[in-house]
Design brief:
Elements: H1 17-20, H2 28-132, H3 146-149
Length: 150
Amino acid sequence: MPGADNTSARTTPPITGNQLALKPDESATQRALELAQRLTEAQDEKKTLVARTRNLEAELAEKERALAAATREVQAATEEVRRTKAELEQWKPQMTALAKRLQSAEKENATTLQSIVSSLEQILEQQKAAEEAPEPRQPPPAKATERERK
């Protein structure tokens, strides 16, 4: 088929340098190799970024779990503080009454101790006075009668 159009025998390439924006000293093969290398680098960078993203997501998940645990602890502590305050408010009247009873008992004890001290001072004064006073003379022993002798 001598007159038939044979596409394999084409004399001009289907894509020209103008369409690929090739530099004058650059061939389509060089451009393809460069683009393939850039594609490989981009894929490697993508893998690195995906791994980094996974690590960051794992760190974020861990931090969220820690935050949730800390939030629960704070809520529990807040509830405990609330209960403790309520208990203290319940105990406040009792503590006030006990403080008043204690003050009353202390006053009573002080009065009792003062009374005891006064009594002891009086006893000591009486003993001192008795020791300083001359001893009463006792009559000499009477002579025994004859009856008593027998």
